């Protein structure tokens, strides 16, 4: 990852009285796989729509490849946005969508597109409106991958895919990314599934960005401490406590911060890593929000 290709500064979006995004700021760097995580209605789609020029922010600025994205052809030719509810013209067949991809995206790889169509067993002659939900998702995935756009956003396009096809998507994405690095944003609820894939985590909670962290750094930052309450308290004293539960005579605390493994062992406290999914659940639990900086 190096220079930013997207800069979001203090962006808010209001729909009448509803605030969908509230003072969001972050950067997306050239080449990297970002996980855009958050609960239902957190503001993920709204943010992606603003990044791709489909919606205006109510306040703040968005710069994509050095310019505002709205109606900017130079910028938008470098961007692919695949959403679950992707619409295509009524008469389009699968092959028409692929043809359009070839025309629209300068980096489109026709051979890769055909391989993907084969992998996902898509019927090229079938009208898009007659595809099953999973096939429609697969078509979105094919376009998103084969476009090789320098900024590719997937807004849960794979919800219709079964587990085997989702794995195929993750595998193809990783393999192609290794050969043709670009900036990929995956918005998803299936955090466990993508946790090995994503390099950076952006977590939105009720319109606010509550986490903007390197995934690897995050993995070591949050742990659970299980042991006698007094020993857990002592170890947790210098960390942010995200959650606490009692298991008979033992206490289990989920904390964010540095805890020395040797110290924990000596105090009879079991130290265990927290999965990204657990971490997100803990952080987005409403009454614990004050623990998140
Ligand atoms: N056009 C609109 N008019 C009014 N409210 C809207 C509009 N678009 C989005 N919202 C509201 O903004 C909030 C954020 O919606 P958004 O679709 O961005 O969430 P999301 O994180 O993508 O959710 P999900 O994971 O459920 O798809 C929601 O409360 C939603 O109802």
From TrEMBL:
Asked if Iron-sulfur is a keyword of the record, the answer is no
Q: Which SUPFAM superfamilies match?
A: P-loop containing nucleoside triphosphate hydrolases
Which domain of life does this protein belong to?
A: Bacteria
Instruction: Provide the GO MF annotations for this entry.
Output: ATP binding
Write down the InterPro entries for this protein, in alphabetical order. AAA+_ATPase (IPR003593), ABC_transporter-like_ATP-bd (IPR003439), P-loop_NTPase (IPR027417)
Which chain positions lie within coiled-coil regions?
none
The species is Dactylosporangium roseum
Lineage here is: Bacteria, Bacillati, Actinomycetota, Actinomycetes, Micromonosporales
Q: Which UniProt keywords are given for this protein, alphabetically ordered?
A: ATP-binding, Nucleotide-binding
Q: Which PANTHER family match?
A: ABC TRANSPORTER, ATP-BINDING PROTEIN, SKFA PEPTIDE EXPORT ATP-BINDING PROTEIN SKFE
Cite the ABC transporter domain residue spans from the record: 6-231
What protein does this entry describe? Answer: ABC transporter ATP-binding protein
Keyword RNA-binding set for record: no
């Amino acid at each position: 990852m190096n220079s930013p290709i997207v800069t979001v500064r203090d962006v808010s979006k209001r729909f009448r009285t509803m605030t969908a995004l509230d003072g969001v700021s972050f950067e997306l760097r050239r080449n990297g796989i970002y996980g855009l995580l958050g609960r239902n209605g957190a503001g993920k789609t709204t943010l992606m729509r603003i990044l791709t020029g489909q919606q205006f922010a109510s306040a703040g600025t968005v710069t994509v490849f050095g310019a505002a994205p709205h109606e900017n052809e130079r910028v938008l030719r470098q961007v692919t946005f695949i959403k679950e509810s992707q619409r295509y013209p009524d008469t389009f067949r699968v092959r028409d969508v692929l043809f359009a991809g070839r025309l629209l995206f300068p980096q489109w790889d026709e051979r890769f597109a055909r391989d993907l169509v084969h992998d996902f067993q898509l019927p090229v002659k079938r009208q898009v409106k007659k595809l099953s939900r999973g096939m429609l998702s697969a078509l979105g995935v094919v376009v998103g991958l084969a476009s090789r756009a320098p900024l590719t956003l997937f807004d849960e396009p794979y919800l219709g895919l079964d587990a085997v096809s989702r794995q195929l998507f993750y595998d193809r994405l990783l393999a192609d990314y290794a050969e043709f690095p670009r900036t990929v944003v995956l918005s998803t609820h299936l955090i466990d599934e993508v946790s090995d894939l994503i390099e950076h985590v952006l977590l939105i909670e009720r319109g606010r960005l509550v986490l903007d962290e390197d995934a690897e750094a995050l993995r070591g930052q949050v742990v659970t401490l299980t042991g006698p309450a007094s020993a857990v308290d002592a170890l947790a004293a210098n960390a942010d406590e995200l959650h606490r539960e009692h298991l008979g005579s033992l206490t289990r605390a989920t904390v964010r911060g540095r805890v020395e493994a040797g110290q924990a062992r000596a105090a009879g406290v079991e130290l265990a890593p927290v999965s990204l999914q657990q971490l997100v659940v803990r952080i987005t639990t409403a009454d614990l929000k004050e623990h998140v900086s």
